[in-house]
Amino acid sequence: MKDLIEKTLSIATASSLPVKIIYQGKDKITQRVIEIKKLQSDHVVAYCRLRRRISTFKLDCVLAAEIIDKKSR
After folding, report:
1. Is 65 exposed, middle or buried (0-12, 13-18, 19+ CB in 10 A)?
2. Residue from 71, 52, 59, 65 nearest 8 by CA
3. Residues 21, 63, 41, CA angle at the centre, nearest 5°?
4. DSSP alpha helices (H): ranges in the chain?
5. Residue 72 has pLDDT above 80, yes or no
6. CB 31 within 8 A of CB 22
7. What is the pLDDT of residues 1-41, one digit of tens each?
8. Pairing between strand 62-67 and 53-58?
9. Could you tell me which of 3, 61, 1 has the C-alpha nearest to residue 32?
10. Which of 6, 30, 36, 71 is most buried per CB count within 10 Å?
């Protein structure tokens, strides 16, 4: 599953497409739409539309990822 998530994030980065993720945060699981700025081996730096700021997401905490249309929320 992690390989599929990493591949999805890699394709989104290369294509400059937003990604809908399910993320396990400190307190709860949230759904976010992010615009990836930098993809690293253990984390992703992205603009989070929910929080309206640049955030860092641990790849181990990303439970699912789906590329979406640029206009989608």
Report:
1. buried
2. 65
3. 85
4. 2-15
5. no
6. yes
7. 789 999 999 999 999 999 999 999 889 999 999 999 999 99
8. unpaired
9. 61
10. 36
Residues in a beta bridge with 36: 46
The architecture CATH gives domain 2-67: Roll (2.30)
Q: What is the pTM of this model?
A: 0.88
pLDDT of 1 reads 72
The tens digit of pLDDT for each residue in 37-62 reads 999 999 999 999 999 999 999 999 99
Q: What contacts 71, CB < 8 A, 6 or more positions away?
A: none
| C-alpha to C-alpha distance for 30 and 39, rounded to whole angstroms | 20
**Quick check: helix, strand or coil at residue 62?**
strand
To the nearest whole number, what is the mean pLDDT of the chain? 93
Domain ranges of the chain: 2-67
